[in-house]
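Thread: Flavin reductase, structure

OP (GT): Posting the sequence first so everyone is looking at the same thing. Length is 180 residues per the record. Can we get the structure tokens written out before standup tomorrow? I want them in the notebook alongside the other entries.
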Amino acid sequence: MNDFPLAKAFTLLEPGPVVLVTTSDGHRHNVMTITWTMVMDFTPRFAITTGPWNHSYAALEKSGECVIAVPTVDLIDTVLAVGTCSGADVDKFEKFALTAVAARHVRAPLIQECLANIECKVVDIVQQHNIVVLDGLAAYVDDARKEKRTLHAVGDGRFIVDGRTVNKRELMGNRLPPGV
């Protein structure tokens, strides 16, 4: 084993997936790129990291709702561009030709171009760590979409693209929670 810079240790654990998070402040929709996400247990509870430095954060905090949209590798340039400009200055849906689709349970829109969308409500904000905890309300997947490979941020400008799936469910036996 060789020494590795501790300041870059997060790149060893950073799994992604990279997501787009949409919000609505009641007047305008916005979208931000988030590279830190987490599934909490075997439930529709998720966490993202964001804070007041992101324009969308005020709408997320005020409305208490958002949509997590899961883009695929063919959208990487759009995903990066969304993350490098502010919704305070530009309408990102218009600028990046993203199609906002009305959600059923929240005011924030789904993104038609994404593989999947999850409508969420905020259940906690852990300000000390800039973690927003979300409960999923509804989930949608575009099974007809040809590209299904998602992006995973390494954290230093590199990305990993999903590849082949290895199914080892039979080895898990009855250790999986019911319904999984």
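GT: Both are above now. Quick notes for whoever picks this up: The chain has a mean pLDDT of 91. The chain has one domain: 6-175.
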